Amino acid sequence: MNSDSREKILAAARKVAQARGYGGLNFRDVAEDVGIKAASMYHHFPTKADLGTAVARRYWEDAAAVLEAISTEEPDPIRALRRYPETFRWALANQNRMCLCSFMAAEYDDLPEPVKREVQAFADVNVAWLKKTLSRAGAVKPRDSERRARAIYAAVAGAQLMARSRADVSLYDELIESYRGAGLLPG
């Protein structure tokens, strides 16, 4: 199996995990989506844990790249912070999916250790970017930047969860605006 097949498997597994979490991730459904036999998947991912780990790692790596792109496109840190919620909104707007790592975090006790580490890395990447951007913006005192970054991350992820449970992207938008109005999110 070539690397193109591996990428197709990762893309299909990401969609499944965003819709059904780690518990709903299975080789049969992913293989069917890719158009291969389930047994062929074992060539790249010997276990479900290997697949889950690779999907979660790719997810946070992609998220880190998106955040860096926002920083590059928006040199004004306040404008970059204003765009942060877009990174979670996209999943809702695409078939009412969730952030893969938020979904998996809800299953944390049932995750294999390598998957747990990748899920934690996603949160760490988001909090680090928010902390750095908040500091650049002068939006909070340096000693308060990590606490505010965690609050923003948790609030945005929570808004996504609430909006998903109602299949209503406009609810997400309303919640984000309420965070801005309350001063949690700058801009």
Characterise this structure.
The chain has 187 residues and is mostly helical. 74% of the residues lie in helices and 0% in strands. The chain is built from ten helices and no strands. The chain is elongated. The relative contact order is 0.12.
- Distance from N terminus to C terminus (CA atoms, Å) equals 48 Å
Q: How many E strands?
A: 0
Order of helices and strands: HHHHHHHHHH
The main pleated sheet reads as: none
- Our count of helices gives 10
Gyration radius (Cα, Å) is 17 Å
Q: Report the portion of residues in β strands.
A: under 5%
Low-pLDDT windows of residues: none
Please state the structural category.
mainly alpha
List keywords for this structure.
0% strand; mainly alpha; 10 helices; 187 residues
Sum this structure up briefly:
This protein has helices at residues 3-20, 27-34, 38-41, 48-73, 77-83, 86-93, 100-106, 113-137, 145-165, 169-182.
Mind sketching the topology for me?
Layout: H1 3-20, H2 27-34, H3 38-41, H4 48-73, H5 77-83, H6 86-93, H7 100-106, H8 113-137, H9 145-165, H10 169-182
Helix pairs in contact: 1-2, 1-4, 1-7, 4-8, 5-8, 7-8, 8-9, 9-10
